[in-house]
Design a protein that fits this description.
single chain, 443 residues, mainly alpha, Hypothetical protein af1432, 2 domains, 61% helix
């Protein structure tokens, strides 16, 4: 048996990318990692074998992989930023209808005029099985992504049943007690405890676990958790900046997975799908940008290494949009100044996410520069030609072309000829003429 450590660890890649999933759910950076640390300790003390602990480990890292798929509907119904709304709704006990109604009223239309808030609240109240539908979309999508990445059915089913509750009042199927997979019971308790620990500290987290024992959570697992009550040092460790390294080390040693080039492409493709699922108007945007960029690079004679970098960078260039409200991405009219500022920050998120992944260092900066222009008029850094390598210049052209030819909330997609005419006008001062010429020959 080969016991050598893989050159690139899949656990390191997914742990670093989990920051993108935290953005999607409006959670503080490190939420997924801290949830993983809590869940893995629960799994160990519950006596899981190495195979089950491995399945649990990746379920914890990917538990929110399907969350972008319900972002547009959530934002539309609640009339608020999906990230903020999702975070707020996780702070209430759904089983108490009065508390749920109050939290919904406080969240719906937040920051908007009273009449708009009432309208959104009334619309939510009229939606039958709203919570079930939103969770069904998320859980099914997340489970499918886990299978797409090659993880076992145990991992997928833990994600699919993440929001089932011990008492049978959870979603999407209303499973109860031991009908709920053990890994899902662990993940549900771990993520809830982390949310309240981040907000209220150790005592607040333990109080919620105790209050929901036997309703939301498996009583035996809660009893295990409560046994850590005096382990103050362990709880304090969760807040430390080296949580990423700690979680990478949590993967069962005899089940460690490597990430070769094929797997990195698979992971990038899965996360591209997560990004594009955030809006019906961005379906396959990331995949198409990567395809155009690769074809342009090949047409221009770039070497194989740059072509591979462009493929990965194109797939992940918009990963920062997971931190942008779907209300902005779906807005049919012009953006106001604040909305424009928010959307222009998404490359900053892309950089913050990709630069954390050691295996992505070769293209993280290039990917984040996809809105920069040769004359320095782009965003968010305003860098110019001297700082834009050929791959970054190609990616910028590919991104604009795909956006122009795709349907958007405020207009239908342009024909290829019309899009190319716009690109040619900007070729020279703002866009790389060589890249525009290459695209023209391919279109």
């Amino acid at each position: 048996m080969d016991t050598r450590e893989p050159a690139v660890s899949l656990s390191e890649v997914l742990s670093a990318l989990s920051h993108a999933l935290d953005l999607t759910e409006g959670q503080p950076q490190g939420h997924t990692l801290r949830t993983c640390a809590i869940g893995m300790r629960l799994g160990e003390e519950a006596g899981l074998d190495a195979e089950a602990r491995s399945a649990l480990y990746y379920a914890l890292l990917l538990k929110d992989a399907g969350c972008s798929s319900n972002a547009q509907r959530f934002a539309s119904l609640f009339g608020t930023a999906d990230q903020r709304g999702k975070y707020q709704m996780k702070l209430t006990d759904w089983h108490h209808r009065g508390r749920l109604a109050l939290r919904t009223a406080a969240t719906a239309g937040a920051g908007r005029p009273l009449w708009a808030r009432v309208k959104h609240f009334a619309r939510i109240a009229q939606e039958d099985d709203l919570t079930r539908d939103l969770i069904q979309i998320r859980c099914d999508r997340g489970a499918n992504i886990a299978l797409q990445l090659g993880f076992p059915s145990q991992t997928a089913e833990a994600i699919r049943s993440l929001d089932e509750h011990w008492c049978g009042k959870g979603y999407p199927e209303g499973k109860r007690e031991h009908e709920i997979p053990l890994l899902a019971r662990i993940a549900n308790l771990a993520q809830c405890v982390e949310i309240f620990h981040a907000r209220d500290g150790r005592r607040g987290a333990l109080r919620v676990a105790r209050q929901r024992r036997g309703t939301w959570f498996d009583p035996d697992l809660v009893d295990v958790l409560l046994g850590w009550g005096r382990d103050e040092a362990w709880w304090n460790e969760l807040r430390q900046p080296h949580i990423l390294e700690r979680v990478v080390a949590e993967e069962p040693r005899d089940r460690r997975r490597g990430a070769d080039e094929e797997m990195l492409n698979t992971v990038a493709g899965a996360f591209a799908d997560i990004v594009d699922a955030k809006s019906p108007y961005t379906f396959r945007h990331s995949t198409n940008v990567a395809m155009y960029a690769v074809r342009m690079a090949e047409e221009m004679g770039l070497d194989d290494a740059d072509v591979r970098r462009l493929h990965l960078g194109g797939l992940l260039h918009d990963i920062g949009k997971l931190g942008v409200s779907s209300r902005i991405l779906e807005k049919p009219g012009r953006l106001d100044d604040d909305e424009r500022k928010e959307i222009e920050r998404h490359p900053l998120h892309t950089w913050a996410i990709l630069s954390r992944v050691g295996a992505f260092q070769g293209f993280a900066r290039m990917s984040a520069l996809h809105h920069e222009k040769l004359d320095g008029s782009g965003y968010p850094w305003g860098v110019g030609a001297d700082e834009l390598e050929p791959a970054a210049r190609i990616l910028a052209v590919a991104d604009i072309y795909e956006a122009l030819t795709a349907d958007r909330p405020y207009r239908a997609g342009m024909t290829p000829d019309a899009a190319l005419a716009i690109l040619r006008k900007d070729a020279g001062p703002r866009l790389w003429p060589d890249a525009v010429d290459a695209l023209s020959r391919l279109a």
